[in-house]
Write a structure and sequence with these properties.
3 copies of one chain form a homotrimer. By secondary structure, chain A is of the alpha+beta class. Chain A is 28% helix and 37% strand. In chain A, the strands form 2 sheets. A 5-stranded antiparallel β-sheet of chain A has the order 1-8-3-5-6, covered by helices on one side. In chain A, a hairpin with a 2-residue loop joins strand 5 and strand 6. Chains A and B meet through strand 4, helix 2 and strand 5 of A and strand 3, helix 3, strand 5 and strand 8 of B. Chains A, B, C: InterPro entries: UPF0047_YjbQ-like (IPR001602), YjbQ-like_sf (IPR035917). Chains A, B, C: It comes from Mediterraneibacter hominis. Chains A, B, C: This is YjbQ family protein. Chains A, B, C: Belongs to the UPF0047 family.
Amino acid sequence: MLERIQFQTTKDGVIPLTDQIKECVEKSGVKSGILCAFITHTTAALTVNSFWDPLGHEDIQDEIRRLIPTRVDFKHQHDTPEDAAGHVKCTLIGPSMSFIIDDGKLLLGHSQGIYFLEFDGPRNRECYVKIVPE
Amino acid sequence: MLERIQFQTTKDGVIPLTDQIKECVEKSGVKSGILCAFITHTTAALTVNSFWDPLGHEDIQDEIRRLIPTRVDFKHQHDTPEDAAGHVKCTLIGPSMSFIIDDGKLLLGHSQGIYFLEFDGPRNRECYVKIVPE
Amino acid sequence: MLERIQFQTTKDGVIPLTDQIKECVEKSGVKSGILCAFITHTTAALTVNSFWDPLGHEDIQDEIRRLIPTRVDFKHQHDTPEDAAGHVKCTLIGPSMSFIIDDGKLLLGHSQGIYFLEFDGPRNRECYVKIVPE
């Protein structure tokens, strides 16, 4: 089984994927195993962080933008300077993440949520999910 | 099987988990497979790095603090500025890591160790381990 | 099955591993599963990024060098300042990455390639690959 989660992003948006990924686990019927979430994009990333304060998500994008500012003198000329910065951000955070399934549920801490970080957008994006049982 | 490794951290500490994770592999009896290590916290991360020079671990935390300094003007107000910085550091390094098991052993380079990076603390923390055989 | 991909790097080089990892999938005969790619080094990392513009790879290494400059006052004294910086870069990007195998193929976006990032070099390096079927 391969699940594809499709969604629309906003510019530099932070999109929650926790519920959709939990649904993939439920649908699979797998009681124990490893789940791989993978995005097929190069100007975005996957992360896990706290869902308590949505303003914290803005801080994350703010800090990533501060670390890798969009500038006009990137060597990469294939597309825009913003995309060039987005590629670097993608390498920094990463497009792949592994999770544990136990007792038929996705193992997450009490404050953890799974998020898609958009470094471009608005765009149509997707996240793939594959589960391997123990 | 789900293994839970529990430990106490110090402020901004670097806690070695290599031996405990190797024990999980041994205990599982799995000869070949993939291991997922996952922490359920949002102000900490997992990493693999050299164990030769403990001062190198201080450099890692120093550099992460330099990249994401604790500041009073984060938008995140749910808890302290230090926690707000910790959340960003968590996204930067990540709470999940996959390893290869081969010939009944955890595959690691001759200088690689597995470490828990505390971005808060001192706290009681835990790392979960799930193994899926080939 | 454990596959080992061996290669030679240049100083701060970006080495494509996509074709070799695709070959591992083909050779395994696995139709659906998860692949773990793992490097056994502490001054290098694995990433996925766009293959369209090779100059983008230079930007990635440039930006990582800008974020973690080589400096003489690292606490780590076991080897050179360049290696000390390389260890921090290794933690920032990471030595492990999980991929999805579906329909007998490695799942990658139309512009995604898998790359080894050298933070030292030139050196002989290797990447291990383990596949677990669904």
